[in-house]
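task queued by scheduler; priority normal; single chain, no ligands, no partner chains; default sampling; output format set to structure tokens
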Amino acid sequence: MDRSPRLLDHLRGKARARGVEDRVRTVQADLDAAWPDLGTVELVWASASLHHLTDPDPDRGLREIFESLRPGGLLAVVEMAGFPRFLPDDVGRGRPGLEARCHEARAEAHAESLPDLGSDWGPRLSRAGFTVEVERPITIDLRPPLPEPTARYAQASLRMLRSRIAGKLSPDDLATLDHLLDSGGPDGVVRRDDLTVRTERTLWAARRP
């Protein structure tokens, strides 16, 4: 379930490629507007998505999920503490600390649009009626050498970050970021051998009694 037709089409393509298309049904919905009738389910998996429930009553989404689960059903939640980090402090161009400044600009931009990013969902799950069975922090710290797709992941992530904070960066920082995102550049992200993947997630497993 997603509000993006593009992402749902991507999911259907992945299902076709794996021969499980007949087992996958996608639903396009904007959960801040109205929840679709999905019937009763045994498992709800929400990965890096609950913080997008920006309804004036953000707990409403959890109550909707609770009602959609059968008794004994499970909600699995993975939420991010922040955006992944990929770059060394000194990228060899511009002023050191570029990625840190990008993250500061992102946090400022999201303070209003995504106020629940990084929230502690445990108390909210309990208020919605769930019994929280597992709460587990996950630290991801991947160092070189990394698989080749890591560079494409970093480039795509940083491009998305740029689209959201371009107006908050200095001209010099923006020029450095654009240089790093240039696929043809000699020291662009896709060609670097010093990329890392550093981030934190928290897993909650909560059951409807």
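post-processing summary
- The mean pLDDT is 91.
- The chain has six helices and four strands.
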